[in-house]
Amino acid sequence: MKRLSILSALLLAWGVSGGANADDKVRGRLIGYQEVPAVSTVATGHFEAEIHRDEQAFDYALTYEGLQGQVRQAHIHFAQSAVPGPIVIWLCGSQTNPGTAGTQTSQQSGTVTGTVTAANVLAGQLGQQLAAGEIGEIIAAMRAGAAYANVHTDLSTGGEIRGQLRGNRRD
Q1: How many structural domains is the chain composed of?
Q2: Residue 19 domain flag
Q3: Is the Cβ–Cβ distance between 43 and 65 less than 8 Å?
Q4: In a domain, 141, yes or no
Q5: Residue 111 resides in a domain
Q6: pLDDT in tens, 51-81
Q7: What's the pLDDT tens digit per position in 126-164?
Q8: Which of 102-106, 140-144, 164-168 has the highest mean predicted lDDT (pLDDT)?
Q9: Which CATH number do you get for residue 86?
Q10: Residue 26 contacts residue 167 (beta carbons within 8 Å)
Q11: Closest-CA residue to 112 (of 48, 61, 40)
């Protein structure tokens, strides 16, 4: 009986930790109605990030289509739902809005991919207590729904589509 309890405990521990590491992702569906203020657009998008095991980076894919304006830039912002927040990570830029060093150039539709590290994290606004380089804090904010991704266009300079990011927590 004691061996069965030990075996059960080991199997339970293996299953829990394996599940947490197997799908450590953050996702968001981008639409115009999530922008602040809301935007009436046919455009849609999807953001997905896979967090590295050491939580010092994440790989992302941002897919979007149907934008009514010309794409100018895309970012991750630090703010809860229905609130505009500061840019903390550039996902792509354009010739008119190139972004930080190393930011890739946007396309009108399709998928933008990359890897984000501490070097890509910008500071939040005064009072948000988010310093530049705090990748762990951004990952925690994305998991908790306190960050969003959006795509800005020339017609909707504040953003044409936006999606609040949410993910699973690793405990």
Answers
A1: 1
A2: no
A3: yes
A4: yes
A5: yes
A6: 999 999 999 999 999 999 999 999 999 999 9
A7: 899 999 999 999 999 999 999 999 999 999 999 999 999
A8: 140-144
A9: 2.60.40
A10: yes
A11: 61
HEC profile of 72-127: EEEEEEECCCCCCCCEEEEEEECCCCCCCCCCCECCCCEEEEEEEEHHHCCCCCCC
10: phi then psi, degrees, rounded to nearest 5: -65, -40
Q: What is residue 141's DSSP assignment?
A: H
- How long is the chain? 171
- Most distant CA pair in the chain, distance: 70
Residue 118 and residue 76 in contact, taking contact as beta carbons nearer than 8 Å: no
C-beta of residue 165 within 8 angstroms of C-beta of residue 62: no
C-alpha dist (Å) from residue 75 to 14, 19, 54, 139: 36, 29, 23, 14
Q: Which domain covers residue 45, as residue numbers?
A: 25-167
DSSP letter (8 states) at residue 170: P
% the chain with pLDDT above 70: 85
Single-letter amino acid, residue 15:
G
